[in-house]
């Protein structure tokens, strides 16, 4: 992943959410307030201009996304299901006693900003690479900072998550926590993913959960997104954010066990695959 410029894929996910807001029927899937807050954040952060956001909300853009859905079948709508899944995990975790939420590689995600006023006794943390986190911080500043929303600007490839959080007075490693790793793991090496799960296990209290998305491995050993896998992987590579990690769903349980977590498919509350991505939940 290119480290000098703000993440293009984070911007793409956010614009996709804005466009999904213009697609009939998606209001039943998308979390409340996500479209408006994402549009506001994109402009306030300077990630995109107001005109681009206006365009993204147009029926024409919905048609354009639909026209390109052949490349990664179902992925356009999948972003809405992915956001809904993460929000359900966070809400259920909080209902079950979690008092910390940590969003890894948060990009322009607005869950922390939207839910922090509703759950004043929960501390929300977000971490992203400085190139993206600095824009996000600017946007959140304009939209209205929250006392219980902590934005952390850090390159997790350079500094370990455990060290980052141990140095943060607001973080409590004994607390029940919900961790979200949405659209992140595929950009890390296998070694980095295993290490990240282990570190996550070390910084949370009993009863915590981690919600994540991942790409399945195909018969040829590559991340599998269907018929156009070669083309998609090539585009991701040349745009500077290649996919490096995938796993066969049947091997996930053992992988999680080896990394200090227990696979908890019973907590999914939805199908385990949306578009080309699998959804996962593990507990500790
Ligand atoms: C595809 S985006 C997903 C954004 C968000 N989770 C979502 O789904 O809307 C991946 C995010 O991971 C962040 N990221 C990638 N490598 C990172 C690193 N080494 N340290 C911190 N953040 C990183 C990127 O900056 C980007 O915001």
Question: How does this structure look, described?
Answer:
By secondary structure, the protein is of the alpha/beta class. The chain has one domain (about 80-284): Vaccinia Virus protein VP39 (Rossmann fold, 3-Layer(aba) Sandwich), CATH 3.40.50. The chain is built from 11 helices and 8 strands. The chain has helices at about 10-20, 35-45, 50-55, 60-65, 75-95, 110-115, 130-145, 160-165, 190-200, 230-240, 250-260; strands at about 100-105, 125-130, 150-155, 175-180, 210-215, 260-265, 275, 275-284. Strands 1, 2, 3, 4, 5, 6, 7 and 8 form an 8-stranded mixed sheet that branches. The mean pLDDT is about 95. The chain binds S-adenosylmethionine. The site of S-adenosylmethionine (SAM) has 20 residues, from α1 and β2. The site of S-adenosylmethionine has 20 residues, from α1 and β2.
């Amino acid at each position: 992943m290119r480290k000098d410029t703000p993440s293009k894929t984070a911007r793409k996910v956010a614009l996709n959410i804005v466009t999904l807001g213009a697609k009939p029927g998606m209001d039943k899937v998308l979390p409340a307030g996500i479209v408006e807050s994402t549009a506001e954040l994109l402009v306030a952060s300077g990630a995109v201009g107001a005109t681009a956001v206006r365009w993204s909300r147009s029926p024409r853009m919905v048609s354009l996304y639909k026209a390109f859905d052949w490349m990664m079948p179902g992925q356009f709508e999948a972003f809405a299901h992915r956001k809904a899944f993460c929000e359900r995990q966070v809400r259920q975790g909080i209902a079950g006693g979690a008092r910390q939420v940590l969003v890894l590689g948060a990009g322009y995600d607005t869950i922390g900003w939207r839910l922090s006023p509703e759950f004043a006794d929960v501390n929300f943390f977000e971490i992203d690479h400085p190139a993206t986190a600095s824009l996000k911080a600017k946007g959140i500043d304009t939209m209205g900072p929250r006392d219980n929303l902590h934005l952390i600007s850090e390159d997790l490839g350079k500094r370990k998550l455990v060290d980052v959080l141990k140095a943060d007075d607001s973080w409590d490693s004994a607390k029940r926590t919900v961790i979200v790793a949405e659209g992140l793991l595929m950009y890390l090496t296998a070694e980095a993913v295993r290490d990240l799960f282990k570190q996550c296990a070390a910084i949370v209290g009993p009863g915590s959960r981690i919600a994540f998305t991942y790409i399945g491995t195909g018969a040829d050993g590559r991340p599998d997104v269907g018929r156009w896998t070669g083309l998609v992987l090539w585009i991701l590579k040349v745009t500077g954010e290649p996919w490096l990690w995938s796993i066969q769903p049947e091997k996930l349980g053992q992988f999680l066990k080896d990394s200090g977590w227990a696979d908890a498919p019973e907590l999914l509350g939805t199908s385990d695959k949306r578009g080309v991505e699998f959804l996962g939940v593990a507990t500790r």
